[in-house]
Amino acid sequence: MKTQFLLIVIAIAAGAVLPLQAGLNIQLGKAVHQPIFAAFASFVIGAAGLLVYLFVLKFDFTSIPQVKSTPPTVWLAGILGAFYVAAVIILAPKLGVALTFSLVVAGQMAVSLLLDHFGLMHLPVKQINWPRVIGVIFLIAGVLLIRRF
C-alpha cells in the first residue's frame, strides 16, 4: 500500500512540474525569440541530466547494443516528446497555461482509454466502460469551463 501511495505522489508531482517546465521553456523561447530552440535546449539539458542519473545508477552501458532488437517505431517516442514540448511552448502563451494543459490532459485521457481498451503497444487490456467515459466527459466539461472563464 505504501508503494502504491508513493507511486501516486510521484505521478502527481510529474504532472505538477509540467506547467512549471512550460513556463520556464516559454521564458527561454522569448529570450531567444524561438520556441523551437527552447524545446531543443530543454531536451539537451534533460538528456544531460539523465546521463548523470545513469552514471549515479551505475548503468551498464554495454547493454546498449541490445537496442538493435527493438522495432524502429519505438524511436518515435523522442519525436512525440519533442512535439509535445514544442507545442506547449507555442500554445501556452496564446491559450493560457490552464487551458493548454486542460486540453493536453483531455487528449491524454482520450488516447489512454483507447490504448487500455485495445491493449495497444502490449499494454494490459482495461475495457472502456461508462464510468471511464463519464470521467473523460467531466474532463472535457472542465476544459470548457476553463476556456469560458
Summarize the structure.
This protein is mainly α.
Would you give an account of this structure?
- It is a single chain.
- The chain is an all-alpha fold and 149 residues long.
- The chain has two domains: 1-95, no CATH class; 96-149.
- Helices cover 77% and strands 0% of the residues.
- It has five helices and no strands.
- The protein has helices spanning 2-32, 35-56, 76-95, 97-118, 130-148.
- Helix 1 (2-32) packs across helix 2 (35-56) and helix 3 runs antiparallel to helix 4.
- The longest helix is centred in the first third of the chain and has 31 residues, at 2-32.
- The model has no long low-confidence stretch (mean pLDDT 92).
Give me the strand/helix succession.
HHHHH
Strand content: under 5%
User: Radius of gyration over alpha carbons?
Assistant: 18 Å
Overall tally of domains = 2
Distance between the termini: 39 Å
Q: What general form does the structure show?
A: globular
- Number-wise, the strands total 0
Compute the average pLDDT: 92
Largest sheet: none
Given helix and strand content, the structural type is: mainly alpha
Residue windows where pLDDT falls under 50 for at least 5 positions = none
Number of helices: 5
Can you give the helix content as a percent range?
over 70%
